[in-house]
Amino acid sequence: MRALTLSVALLAALTTSLAQSDDTKETVESASSSSSSDDESKEAWMRAPAGTVAVRSGEDALLTCVVLGARGKPVLWRRARDSSLLTAGGVRVTRDERVKVLHDDADEPLQGPGIRKGGDVWALVIKSVKSSDAGLYTCELNTEPPVRSFHRLTVISRGLTPPEAQNATDSYSANNPTLSTLALSHNYTDCCISANVSRGCLGFCSIQTILEGTGQDPETCQPDFPAIVKCMADGRNHVPCCVQEHVPDICQDVCRGEFTPVTDNIKTHYSCAAYMEKTLACIVEGIELLPSPPEDVEVEPLSEKQLNITWSPPLENTETVTEYIVNVTTLRSFDAHLIDPSESSMRNTSMKMSQPMTYKVPANKTFLVLNDLLPFTMYEISVTSYNIHGSSLPSYSIRSLTLTPGKMKTTAVASAPKLPDVRSCCLSAGINHYGCVDKLCDPTKTFEIGLQVTDLMICAPWAGVTFGCLANGMDHTPCCRARGLPEACLPLCSGNITNLDFNHFKCLRFMTGYTNCLLQGYGVLPGPPTRLHLTNIDTDFAVVHWAPPNALADTVQFYNLHYKALQLEEDYKTVERVQSPFILEDLESNTDYEIFVEAVNEHGLGEASPRLIFRTQSLALEDEEEVSNAYNVTACCEKVQVATVCMPLCSYDAKMSDLRTLAPLCAQEFHKLLRCGAGGRNHEACCARRGVPASCRGVCAGAPRGSVNSCVSYVGNIVQCFEEGTGILPGPPRELHAVVNHDKLFLDWAAPQDGANATSYVVHWQKVDNNSQPYYYNTLQLDNKMNVTQTMARLEGLDVNSTYHVFVVAANDFGTSLPSSMLLLNITEDTENKEVSGIPSPPHSLSVASHSATWLALSWQPPQFSQPDEKITYTLFFKSPTQLGTGNVTKITTTVPGHTLEKLSPNTQYVVWVTAHAVAGDSLPSETLLAWTDPAYPAFVEPPTINPVNLVVEGSSMTILCIAMGTPTPTISLYISGRLVRQEVTRHMVTVIHNVTRDMSQVSCYADNGYGTPMQASRRINISHVPTIQASGITMAAAGDSVILECRVEALPKPTVAFWRDPSGRTPVIDGPNYSIQLLSDPEESTKYTMRLIIKKITETDEGDYFCHAENAFGKTLRPVSVRLRTAPHHNVTECCTQMNVSSTCIDACSFHLDMDNIMDRPECMDDFEKLMKCAADGSDHRGCCASWGVPRNCLELCRGGPVSRTCALQHARRALACFRDAGAKLPGPPRNLKAHVAPTPHAVLLSWDAPLKNPQTVYLYRVFWRAYGAKVPEKLDTSETSVVLTGLQDDVRYECVVKAANDVGTSSLSQSIMFTTAGQETGAAAAPVGGSSTASAVGGAVACILVAAILLSAGLYYRHRKNLRLKAQGGVAFENPSYLREPNPDTVVNGTVPNGNTANGGNGVANSISNSTAWRQETLQNPSTAIPTAREVDPTLYEELKLGQDGAGFKRLK
Hints:
Elements: H1 7-13, H2 16-20, E1 28-29, H3 38-43, E2 45-46, E3 53-56, E4 61-68, E5 75-79, E6 84-88, E7 91-92, E8 99-103, E9 121-126, E10 135-141, E11 147-156, H4 181-184, H5 189-194, H6 207-212, H7 225-233, E12 236-237, H8 239-244, H9 276-289, E13 295-301, E14 307-312, E15 323-333, E16 351-362, E17 367-370, E18 377-386, E19 391-392, E20 398-401, H10 422-428, H11 434-440, H12 453-458, H13 463-471, H14 477-482, H15 490-494, H16 511-522, E21 530-535, E22 542-547, E23 558-565, E24 573-578, E25 582-584, E26 592-601, E27 604-608, E28 612-615, H17 619-627, H18 633-639, H19 656-662, H20 670-678, H21 684-689, H22 697-700, H23 715-728, E29 734-741, E30 744-750, E31 760-768, E32 784-788, E33 792-795, E34 802-812, E35 815-816, E36 823-827, E37 834-837, E38 844-851, E39 856-861, E40 873-879, E41 890-894, E42 898-901, E43 909-918, E44 921-922, E45 929-932, E46 937-941, E47 945-947, E48 952-953, E49 958-967, E50 971-976, E51 979-985, E52 988-993, E53 1002-1008, E54 1015-1020, E55 1023-1031, E56 1034-1037, E57 1043-1052, ...
Parallel strand pairs: 3-11, 48-55, 56-62
Antiparallel strand pairs: 1-11, 2-4, 4-9, 5-6, 5-10, 6-7, 8-9, 10-11, 12-19, 13-14, 14-17, 15-16, 15-18, 18-20, 21-22, 22-25, 23-24, 23-26, 26-27, 26-28, 29-30, 29-37, 30-33, 31-32, 31-34, 34-35, 34-36, 38-39, 39-42, 40-41, 40-43, 43-44, 43-45, 46-49, 47-49, 49-52, 50-51, 50-53, 53-54, 55-57, ...
Helix pairs in contact: 10-13, 18-20, 24-26, 26-28
């Protein structure tokens, strides 16, 4: 039985009617008729029923009622619990068709005394009884008064059949007693309460409660199960029943009332679930049948050879007791000379023995005197009750010592001296208060004064008289002072006190010591015991001796012994009513104790003996002595070189937690652990006895015959057998060798080195032919065997020209060892004195554990015949049958019983065998194995399966399944948005991604196994998320202008949008004459939208804040966008248009702002479009603003007034003009009057310029670009001054240069370019402009041209492949990475330093450079006034991402 938690399952199977049966005692009521006729009263009566009728559930029940003298009156059958009528006469009254009456009306008499005719028997039949049919039934004769008999029916569950007696010698009665209501209602709650079982676990303390459901969690009650199981067994010995039901001994703890809690120790993890029902059935039956243990067992030593044992009868089933068995075990016999303290020693030299004896005592006696015992010997005594059904458990054990030689127990105690007559003294002194006389004038009651302060106050007037009488003319002060009474109380001890006051109240708590001093002074108490000493001090006990006191020794009734451990600083523990010598038990080892003894007579405690201090023996020394010759499993593991990490498992007390943790790491070491655990012993008999199934018993011999996974549940059973067997079984013989001489064989071997000694040896031998297997690993029996007692043997008469298999095992009374080696001998005529040494048996069970196209995983079992501490290595041989010759055999050496052959050819057959190597020699080869590798198939991968299917929410988790086929097993790689997430060699890979982000939309599975072309499958998923909004910030406009307010929204699913005038959403903007609200979808990205509010003619009432609102199923977002009216125009576009020679037909489109609607309505104005946009840009660079609103890179030149294609002009002009209006008034204009001058230093030039006309006061930085004429890459530096010295120039080289200004909002356009040399600015030189016009050739323009060309090329290829790319996004198989990322290249100028020059201001030549500016980093990004926090360059097109993707950003390209 493993755990009480299993009891619920069994007891629930019990028939519920057994728990509901009435406790009514079966009776037979006979009532005489009210008639005065004696004859009539004698004729009507019923015979008492034979007893309880018990049937199994589903069988038919027959209740027989014998009615004599019925005289035709009807006989009724009733159910007692509800008085329902079942039958009347021969008629069924109840609706239950299973009920009927059997009654014979024939006149023939039936067998039986007093039954004259068949009509006297009325039998109630209930077919197919149920549990609800159990209970009491009444057979009633309808007379006045009625005559009744009561019949009990018990229904037994088929899963709970009582044990059946096998023969007359069984301890259980052959009558097969049935379960009763008394047994099922067995309630042991009182026992549980006294055992301190938790209140919440008391539901397990009643069979009835368990049947109906306890309501408690068994796991929480596990600490209370030992006490609960002990109470459940109720002191009865249920083991014979459990043995009869074939419950293994390891599972019989509950049968003994014991419970083995499951701990981390591996030995507690054993399986008894299969025997749970049988165990509880035995307990339920035993409660009713078996007696409880005897009560009040006492042992009293009478002399040096006699002990008197007494007890009381058991409380349960007392009348059934047939005898008592007294169990007497001799524990120790001590040397008599050790009684003398002068000869005693702290070292125990006693002889330990174990001689159990039993004595039978008849049931009518409850005492036994043991005679002929050894003097001064420790005995342990228990008593057991027996009846015809079995026995109780033994009573609690008592240890007792026989007396020392020549010493007899004192049989009579003399009377102590009488106390002085203090009462008469008080009365003669005139005390008339009887309460004071009773308490203060009785020396045996003075200690009671300490209980009541009022007593002392009431009797205060007579204090001088009472305490004087108590002193009896003596001064007890020395004794009182020695007992710790304070000085104020000492007058009480001398009797010299005249009055009492409150200062004497402190004396109340010392009244007990005061009383003892009085009695001691009277001379009525015994003196202190003498000669206190100890002998036979052990680790957990010591024998205490003392001699009687010198004073009043004959009045001593008994002694009290006090002891305490000095290290714990605890109070004294007291053992009362003891005699010398006394065994002081339950001590801690290696601990200091202090003891003293007090004598007690009829008056009280005498003076204490002197204190004695002693130390118990060390348990470590004793353990070392006990295990010095035992088998050392740890040393075995060290010799076979078990891995260090696995050494915690090399112990019989290993932890189950370590086994679970280390099992994956130590799988290859298990064969070593099993061999060392078995220790070369054959534990199969123990495992069979402890319930280990036959399939796992190979593990018990240290040689499993297959996988041990199915045996894990029996690990506790097996380890217990290992620990027990290595202590009692002999170890294996060693160094077996033989000498062959013709037909004779001489064997010799060495005896086992560790553990129990072998008493004999068994030599096994068998003749084998050339076609038979010489060794069968699954048996240790051969055809012939011979028992010998020496370490040698001689075999004669062997067949010549034959082969024999021989091995030897050691044996003793407990079992046998395993063979340590085997001999395979060839007997020939010409063989003379040939010596052969034993070798390990061959490895066996060679098999293919797993296989693929290029590898074979092989495993085998180690040799069963080998020394447990022998280091074994293996040589694995393999070759292909197509490779002829021994030279083609490949050898591999390994230390574990398994190996994986790699780099094999697909679809190829290999021949494999293995041999073992030990110090004794090499084994024979194992069986030969033919194994095929699998054919190779290229990898195939399915599109990833994603769960949830269509509802992946940002911030949640998703599960991705990649399935790949192919042989060998492919390597699966999971990529998410181009990044490698996981890689594993498997066919099915499940990955859980937590905290999903919206950029994880592309999921790809990639598989490769080295054969064929690798394969990739992708799927695009939609990540649902809360809307996010990017607002355009503040838009400046003039009254009457048309204003566009835009917000970019990203959301999935599609949001509902609105513009509000207040943040609370109570004032919506209504689409009407002056307002137009649009929601535009991004053609490239389906999750992006543009909210647009067009105010057609803005007025002062339209000025202010607007709020973009977007909402979907996952949330809502609100962002502000504002429009402000300009107080004054900042730029006259008309003047610029006039200077740029805009045609007269379009000049009206130029006002303070460019009127885009006026341009679009007149196609003739498109020729002047570039001039109009340049004037509207007003010399500022708005490309950052345009890029943030999605203007493509090839159209960004429009945003600083540069030339673009007609397509860009039509699609993005409004967006550019909106950026012009938003930030045009804040951006700086271009620097003016850029000039070059001769520098005062060689190889340098001085550049100067004027501040811009527009917003000059806001400029804090200028950026200078220069390059050698014709070079592609310009150089640059930053300065806050309007001049700078360029150094590191070459004198004979022409340079071109431009400058641009920057403030907190953004940058200007480029200035006019100039050409210069170190000699100064060239006059009349036509320098190519860097920016602005289409004819410029400045550095910025050259770079822009290169980028534009690349953009046009990539755009063409992009649109060419656009259809294919879209198809890939729909989950098809793709062979390119769709998501390379491109990181921006930050500026390399730090602290104004450039590779070929230093910066200095033009005035004094001092360095005036500054760190890289935020304004320049934002130059090509966005307008800082907007709310977009992006800090990167404009996103490249998809084709550019594919073309320019960096290494490691996506899948490797397939070749």
